[in-house]
Structure formats: C-alpha cells, structure tokens
Amino acid sequence: MQLRYNRPIWKNQRKPKFFLRWEKYLKLREGRSSRGLIGEVAQWKQAKDIRAYVAAVKSASPQGSAELETTDREKWISWALSHADRIDPLKNGNLGKGVDSDRDLKDRPDWG
Fold first, then answer.
1. Residue 49: is it exposed, middle or buried by C-beta count within 10 angstroms (0-12/13-18/19+)?
2. Buried b / exposed e across 3-36, counting CB within 10 Å, b at 16+?
3. Within its chain, how far is the Cα of 32 from the centroid?
4. Where are the domains of the chain?
5. What is the mean pLDDT of residues 19-23?
6. Strand 3-4 to 7-8 pairing
7. HEC profile for the chain?
8. pTM to 2 decimal places
9. Which residues pair with 3 in a beta bridge?
10. Rounded to whole angstroms, how far apart are CA atoms 35 and 31?
11. Are 86 and 92 in contact (CB under 8 A)?
12. Nearest-angstrom CA–CA distance, 109 and 89
C-alpha cells in the first residue's frame, strides 16, 4: 500500500483498521504536543514577567516596596529570580520535555 499526499491508493473502500488506529494515535500525540508547548510558553512568559517585576522592585526606592529592609529585600529578590529560573524552560533544562517525542511510543496503538 502506498500513500500519495495523505490519500491512500485504495478508492471507495474503508480504510484498514490499523490505518484508523494510526490516525487516532497521531491526533492524540499532536494534542499532547501542543498542550506541552503551550505550557512551556506560559512558564517562559511567567518567568519573564517575574524578572520584569524584580527589575521594577530593584529600581523602586526602598520605602516604595512595602517597607522591606534592605537585607530582606535582597533575599526576596534573590528568591524571586531563582524561582523564575526554576520555572523557565529555557534555563531549567526542561525545554521540549512537555512535548512528545518519537522516543515516547508507550501510548501507540496495538497494531495486532
């Protein structure tokens, strides 16, 4: 059986079961991959927003930051930046981990 431009050679026939299972698997995988990608983008944006907020806190005068003492303020800034690094997929080593890869075939259909 050959495929041409996603159309099988067989005409006016039902698709074989394994082909239907394969299509279903690909749709499922695509959905998981796009959700993983969207999650990574959301984490990246959140990390970027945290860093921008920390920059604003740094530039604000100490009395404008809820009267935190300088040492408490520096501790908070350090914590906030490390939290941003932990959730940022570009910095935490989890880039692409939320997206299915070809190695992850445990959910593939039984071709039986």
1. exposed
2. eeeeeeeeeeeeeeeeeebeeeeeeebeeeeeeb
3. 10
4. 15-87
5. 76
6. antiparallel
7. CCEECCEECCCCCCCCHHHHHHHHHHHHHHHHHHHHHHHHHHHHHHHHHHHHHHHHHHHCCHHHCCCCCHHHHHHHHHHHHHHHHHHCCCCCCCCCCCCCCCCCCCCCCCCC
8. 0.57
9. 8
10. 6
11. yes
12. 30
pLDDT tens digits along 76-112? 999 999 999 999 998 887 777 665 554 454 555 555 4
Find, among 99, 95, 91, the residue nearest to 47 by Cα: 91
Q: Which residue has the tokens 């431009």?
A: 5
Contact assessment for residue 98 and residue 39, using Cβ atoms and an 8 Å cutoff: yes
Amino acid found at 23? E
Residues comprising the chain, all counted: 112
